[in-house]
Amino acid sequence: MSFRSRNSGRALLPFGLDYSDVLANNHETEKPQLVLPVHGSLNEYEILSSKQSIAFTQLMVDGPFYTGNVDINGDKKSPSQSNTAPDGIARYSDRYKKVKKIGRSIEEHPYQLEFFPEELYSVMGISNKQKKKLLSLSSFKSNGGLKEYSIDENSESDKAASMLERLKDMAEELDEEQDKDDDGEDLEEELDDEFDEDEDDDYNAEKYFDDGEDDGGNDAGNDEAAF
Amino acid sequence: MEGVIPESYKTQSPKSYLYTTIAKNHLGEVAAIVISCLISHGRLTSREIGHKTKLPIKVVKSALVSLVQLQCVYYWKDDNSSQSHYNFNENGILNFLHSGEIINHIKTIYGDDYAEIIQNVLVNGHIKISDYMKNIEDEQTKLDTETIFLRLFTDKWLARLQLFDFHPFADIWNNIFQDILKKTPRSATTSEIKRVTEAKEKTKVAFTNLLEGGQTAKELYITTDGYKRLNPNLIVRFNLSRFKKHIRSEALANLAKSRVGVLSAKIYEIALGLVEQESPDIKHPFLQISGLINDPDEEKFFINSIENKLVEDKKIVFTVRELQRSLPADLDLRNSILTHNFLKPNLSKKRVATNESPESPNKKIKLENGDDDDDDLIAIFNAKNSETIEDDNSDFHSISLIQHHLKLLSNGSSIQFLIETTPGTFTIPYTALIKSLQQYNFETLIKTTLGVNSFRVLRCLKSQKIGDEKSLANAVLLKEKTVRNEVYKLFKANLVEIQEVPRSADRAASKTFFLFRHKEIVSYNFLNNALIFSMAEILTNIQNFKEDHKILLEKCEREDVKGHEDELLLESELKTLKNLQTREIQNIGRFYRIKSLFEIYSL
Predict the structure, then answer these.
(1) Which of A54, A59, A60 is facing B584, going by the closest CB pair?
(2) Which of B190, B264, B341, B583 is the most buried (most CB within 10 A)?
(3) What's the rounded Cα separation, in Å, for the pair A117 and B167?
């Protein structure tokens, strides 16, 4: 949008109209034009409703009718039933992840078949087996069952303790690195020594030449001819 | 589409955005893809859904089983077709939307056990009572649970699930109509229009009988060992329309609180609770069938006739005595309204010679409650003789005090909250009240967001119906420039329509003037869409900030970490988790606040 100044003679507006209203608006910032009322803090009823909503969402996600996420890594685009991460890399921590079972057959949930179209019967695993079918029921928790974190946010000792932990971790890491370096040097020295010894032993020509310095000096053997 | 939720779910409509986000959060991506596809295309077979979403047919059918179970889709199968067609049904998603409030409300009125049953019914979509009982071993607990089921069913929080709950009303209507039309022969004496009208009337009767059928005592209850129980073979679902009636009552009570007073609103809330169960549905099934009732006047007449019938049958009528019995024990109405009786001194006190005047005239002071609008609260205020103790004030819930409060509610302000049908008997005019509710909430919103001047301009425009700048400036008593600015603000917020009126044949701009008009329905729809979009945005923001801390949240989900967070997680991690939890609770609280405004404009 270009704004022409009032004094430019190029803009010939019809009689009665001018740019004053448009120019009066401040278009420099992207701030919202409306000042909306500020939210007050939630009251007890609202907090409980929110907690129940969060708990209900979790129940649905863990429940029998969760349809899962689309697994785009596999050849078949099917909801992922394994506990491998979406990137497809198997990790040690996967053994601790909960495997979500997607879909329930009629043997696992007591469907009321009269309310379902017949074409869905195949997916529901309609069979003649008479297994006991139980509803998966949840218990009610008045505060939603959310974990309560008792953290004293203003406690300086906590802050100090967490700082201390972090410093300890850093120090341990440093020590580990140093130890690794030391071990590395020792190994090198040993290797050098070995190599040195080997080199000295193998290529030390002098060891093959005995110049007689170590002989005790045998004066009695003087009657032999010397070369 | 490549088996992912298409981006168009956000843009095609705010409802599509909200419903798809809720489905994704509660049921997973696959359900969200299917729902998004059904919202886009309307009615599809399972094969078509698979084709459009690029999901395997088995996955689609598996998702449809979940969606049918939770009443998130309708299906319909023609007699001459082997395939079923699926439509989106918003009732299931609305159950998820209101879930937190539903469970909390039931817990507040009835208790934890009742809330647990409602929670389980919502999680499972629908439940057969005998299947529920199979999970309970203890006989006493079984009996208690049956009693709870009976109470919830009698109070209409649970309803019987029937086959027509899974079919779209339009298809059921069409089916019945075609059958009746075939059975109504053409004759020379009656015209085709008359024949069709006759068939329509017969269809209405048959349709109503179908919806109201299956509610006989024989089908619902059994009597064993002398006490009444629900039939164990009964299949029940949560009755969302009952909860919507509660939402309406809450909104009306809040309106009374803001316009009349806290105590009067409390009495009004209890009065609403007395008739809530039998109050008219938010939307009658006939109004959900498109093309059946087209004319707005006919629609108004139809809605009023339903309400009048309920009043005649004394279903939404209460007496003062009934209200008195239902008032809570801790509600103290003494001194809440000073009546003319206060001014009559007691006989005993008359004997005491005093220098004060024996009787003072009744001083009525009109109080303005600080608002700029025209409504005043008339409070009867006595400057003297406040020490007089009357019979009215000896009882917490005296009949006369209650009657005065009810009079205040019916005549005290510009909104008629109650209508006195016969002396001592009152009814609630729901249809008229909904209009006032929406209007007053809308005006308060304009006042607080756009400013007092905008509100004045809008009010004047509404009274004038259509006006130009000059007439508006004269009516509202503001400068023309200010009026122009305010109208521009209202226009930007889509509250005002502009009509260009050219005065010359060549439509020259200099000879054109503009007329402004405010249409309520258009404004309300726009506001509703904005609110729905905001709600969906809040849910998306929650997912986004959870995604930012994905690694930590996955760590907490591990089987070895669950239950041992205090030992295995760092202090900083626990703090982060607490902050995340607080943030989520705050956001859901705000979500519910926006939802309460959205509910008013969905009534």
Answers:
(1) A54
(2) B264
(3) 11
Chain B contact probe: residue of A23, A53, A114, A118 with most B CBs at under 10 A = A53
Total structural domains within chain B: 5
Task: Determine whether the interchain pair A135/B134 forms a contact, defined as Cβ–Cβ distance below 8 Å.
Answer: yes
Task: Tell me: do B168 and B193 sit in the same domain.
Answer: yes
Q: How far is CA B585 from CA A54, B119, B538, B542, B582, in A?
A: 8, 19, 12, 10, 5
Average pLDDT over residues B389-401: 66
Give the pLDDT of residue A173: 84
Q: Is the pTM of this model over 0.95?
A: no
**Is there a single domain that holds both residue B405 and residue B488?**
no
- Do the domain assignments include residue B194? yes
Instruction: Give the Cα separation of B591 and A16 in Å (integer).
Output: 47
Apex B412 CA angle, B408 and B416, nearest 5: 95
Is residue B20 a contact partner of residue B5, using CB atoms and an 8 Å limit?
Answer: yes
Contact at CB, B449 and A34, closer than 8 angstroms: yes
Residue range B201-211: mean pLDDT, rounded = 92
Q: Are residues B255 and B315 in the same domain?
A: yes
Question: A52, A54, A83, A99: which to substitute to probe chain B, counting the most B Cβ within 10 Å?
Answer: A52
Mean pLDDT score, B145-171 = 94
CA distance A83 to A90: 9
In a domain, B465, yes or no: yes
Distance from CA of A113 to the nearest CA of B (A): 10
Q: Residue B1 — pLDDT band, cuts 50, 70, 90? A: very low
Structure tokens at B408: 């205040």
* Residue B499, strand partner residues: B515
Q: Residue B544: in which H helix or E strand, if any?
A: helix B520-548
A175 is written with which tokens?
A: 């020590």
- Annotate B366-432 with three-state secondary structure: EECCCCCCCCCEEEECCCCCCCCCCHHHCCCCCHHHHHHHHHHHHHCCCCCCCEEEECCEEECCHHH
Contact A58, B600 (CB under 8 A): no
Residue A108: exposed, middle, or buried by beta-carbon count in 10 A (0-12, 13-18, 19+)? middle
What is the C-alpha separation between A177 and B423, in angstroms, rounded? 92
Looking at the fold, whether B363 and B385 belong to one and the same domain comes out as yes
CB contact under 8 A, B75 and A117: yes
A20-67: pLDDT as tens digits: 766 665 555 555 666 777 788 999 999 999 999 999 999 999 999 999
- How far A183 CA sits from the closest chain B CA (Å)? 32
CB within 8 Å: A147 and B84:
no
Residues B212-228: tens digit of each pLDDT: 888 888 888 888 888 88
Provide the residue range defining the domain that includes B213.
Answer: 94-242
CB contact under 8 A, B589 and A116: no
Domain boundary (B212, B242, B272) is at: B242
Give A-chain residues touching B77 at CB under 8 angstroms: 117
Q: What is the CATH number of the domain that holds B470?
A: 1.10.10.10
Same domain, B227 and B187: yes
Considering only CA atoms, give the Rg of chain A: 42
* Contact between chains at A137 and B99 (C-beta distance less than 8 A): no
The whole-angstrom distance between B588's CA and the closest CA on chain A is 5
Please say which residue of B486, B518, B550 terminates a domain: B518
Indicate whether B527 and B504 sit together in one domain: no
Residue B200, in any domain of the structure = yes
Of A35, A70, A153, the CB nearest to B29: A70
Is B2 part of any domain? Answer: no
Q: CB under 8 Å to B567, separation ≥6 — which residues?
A: none
| Same structural domain, B551 and B493 | no
Contact B65 A158 (CB under 8 A): no
Residue from B155, B140, B159, B161 nearest B110 by CA = B155
Q: Which residues of B touch A77 (CB under 8 A)?
A: 3, 54-56, 59
